[in-house]
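Hi Y.,

Following your request, here is the sequence exactly as I used it, all 140 residues.
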Amino acid sequence: MNTHLTPRFDLVGIVVSDMAASLAFYRRLGIDFPAGSEEQPHIEAALPGGLRIAFDTEETIRSFAGEDWEPPRSAGRIGLAFHCETPAGVDAAYEELVAAGHHGELKPWDAFWGQRYASVLDPDGNGVDLFAPLATPAAD
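Below is the corresponding structure, written out as tokens. Let me know if you'd prefer a different format.
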């Protein structure tokens, strides 16, 4: 009998300082959270491909980690990337997020690796990349 199980990557967890602000940001990127999630200390959502994303408030982590726990002082310890289907989709998503008041870290550009690419920061300063493949030349 095999008693060794191989772990399977299942969830991305993010500690947030403001649940409502974080949910509003990620909803703009197409993640579906149930109504009323803003009032919860922990929330999860299914992602395409079977992964899940979860948010916990700083207070939630402190409640089980202890009163001495402090959130990390520097941001950007994780990076998330969202496929936007088309180069125009990258531009539109970037513009919508910046217009909503989020910091545009890197304006859309045509990256040398063949993608339209841009970066914005979520409410806690985590980098969120937006990308899509550049059109490939038609074959003769």
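The domain at 76-140 is CATH 3.10.180.10 (2,3-Dihydroxybiphenyl 1,2-Dioxygenase; domain 1).

Thanks again,
Q.
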